[in-house]
Amino acid sequence: MMVIKFVRCVLLDVILLACIVPAVSSSGSDFTSTVKRFPSISNLDGICTLTNSSGDDGPAFTAAILSDQCSTVNIPAGTTINIASPLNTSATYNKHISLAGTLSFTDDTTYWQQNSFKFTYQNATTFWLLGGKNISLYGGGTIQGNGQAWYNLYSTNSSVLRPIPLTIYEAINIVVRDITVLQTPFWNFFVSDSKKIVFDDITLHSTSTIAGIDAKNTDGWDIYRSDDVTITNSQITNQDDCVSFKPNSTNVLVQNLICNGSHGISVGSLGQYNGEFDLVENVSVSNIHMLNAQNGVRIKSWAGPNVGSGLVKNISYSHWQEDNVDNPIIIDSCFMTNTTTCTQYPSKVPTEDVYISYINGTSSGQEQSVVVNLNCSPGGTCSNIKLDNIALSPPAKYGLATYLCANIKVLGNAASLFNC
Ligand SMILES: *[C@@H]1O[C@H](CO)[C@@H](O)[C@H](O)[C@H]1NC(C)=O
Ligand SMILES: *[C@@H]1O[C@H](CO)[C@@H](O)[C@H](O)[C@H]1NC(C)=O
Ligand SMILES: *[C@@H]1O[C@H](CO)[C@@H](O)[C@H](O)[C@H]1NC(C)=O
Ligand SMILES: *[C@@H]1O[C@H](CO)[C@@H](O)[C@H](O)[C@H]1NC(C)=O
Ligand SMILES: *[C@@H]1O[C@H](CO)[C@@H](O)[C@H](O)[C@H]1NC(C)=O
Ligand SMILES: *[C@@H]1O[C@H](CO)[C@@H](O)[C@H](O)[C@H]1NC(C)=O
Ligand SMILES: *[C@@H]1O[C@H](CO)[C@@H](O)[C@H](O)[C@H]1NC(C)=O
Ligand SMILES: *[C@@H]1O[C@H](CO)[C@@H](O)[C@H](O)[C@H]1NC(C)=O
Ligand SMILES: *[C@@H]1O[C@H](CO)[C@@H](O)[C@H](O)[C@H]1NC(C)=O
Ligand SMILES: *[C@@H]1O[C@H](CO)[C@@H](O)[C@H](O)[C@H]1NC(C)=O
Ligand SMILES: *[C@@H]1O[C@H](CO)[C@@H](O)[C@H](O)[C@H]1NC(C)=O
Q1: HSE (CB half, 13 Å, CA atoms) of 248?
Q2: Residue 42: pLDDT band by 50, 70, 90 thresholds?
């Protein structure tokens, strides 16, 4: 009897609520142990349902995820659980987390600055560390970051470390599907030291409601030291990178995104830290609608004294529509330096085998007539960069499009558009 119920749940796991109903309405007595310390969890046949305790639901949520008694942790539609303490679910195995309701992080900025989990990389901090193996998070629900208090505070003090709602750390085989994240204080998702990670059908929306204060650094995804990551079928409104491939992102597929208001889909920046080697290899980004953005296609690496090294290899950007984008295509291998310094200390991040094709649309006019800028470092660091079927124009008042390049031999049928 119980076995049959479980088989049904596994088969129906994409529409989990449909399988909870029969499990709950039958006796459920096969599985009697409840996680007793936390009255806000009820447990039936391995499905642990959280209810709102009116206090901090963080410990109950963590206990349910880490409990062997709960193969599924369920936050039903209409339920908001409030999280007022950090969630460490690092050692999680074989778990469904069905979030149909809302997971809301409190906006006690003083508390969280002291108590969030801290990373060395870019001083990132997080509310929730999720790691382990074979975990899925799905259900149509919302993670509410309550970021406005953070945007306000950061506008007065840029030393404030703002937490990331969900960090996937030291994890393998994770699926995050059909989830919305609202008002993130900082990046939406950080994927670090992980592999086989899938994000699908994700909605991200972070905007400040106060004029003059921005929702800064609200990147969609930052991928770091991770392999085999897929991000598909998602829409993002934010105020920093839509997706960012940080050091040692390999084998990443990004498809079917609408990015609104972002800073583009970026490789880098790489080679920032002296003594470190940053690799980004095998990245494919296709079917993108990029609008109202600072950048579209972007690859940036540092040059100058005391910087690091690395390699950018086999990157493909294809089938993009861009509207109102300041820099629709930009490669900058002299990031944070001027021409003189970049000549003296060229980039140590060779950029090779980059294929950019079928990119159309309009720039914003921020760079006047310039629609593409391929600013490679002296020293021949860019090689085999190919552009095909590029149709970009500036606003009519700037006339014909300008395609800029330096220290590069552009290949492909768009080569004739360039001045170098
Ligand atoms: C849960 O908690 C919040 C804040 O305490 C409250 O506003 C909400 O109505 C509660 N109830 C449910 C069912 O989520
Ligand atoms: C999170 O929990 C894991 C497993 O219990 C532990 O090893 C790790 O130190 C904890 N991480 C933090 C940052 O507290
Ligand atoms: C993954 O976890 C689910 C949920 O607990 C479980 O049903 C499934 O068997 C697990 N898969 C593997 C390969 O362990
Ligand atoms: C991290 O914080 C330290 C100390 O506040 C600061 O010196 C450093 O510049 C910060 N690094 C980044 C990448 O923000
Ligand atoms: C800015 O925030 C940092 C980090 O919380 C804190 O140490 C510092 O005192 C704050 N500065 C001011 C002027 O409030
Ligand atoms: C893009 O974001 C802006 C600012 O939040 C919003 O007004 C606009 O409706 C969004 N456009 C689309 C197509 O989502
Ligand atoms: C990236 O991976 C290479 C090995 O491919 C390693 O040598 C390097 O230290 C890694 N860099 C970072 C920033 O993790
Ligand atoms: C380039 O990367 C793609 C994935 O984006 C992969 O399918 C392809 O095999 C790679 N090509 C080479 C030559 O490594
Ligand atoms: C890139 O893809 C190629 C072809 O699949 C593979 O041989 C190579 O190992 C991949 N590179 C990395 C860093 O995973
Ligand atoms: C370039 O940058 C270097 C180092 O910051 C500075 O010393 C130099 O004056 C700058 N040169 C120009 C032409 O701006
Ligand atoms: C741009 O490309 C998209 C999708 O490939 C296509 O639907 C659209 O008509 C194109 N627009 C222009 C102006 O070429």
Answers
A1: 11
A2: confident
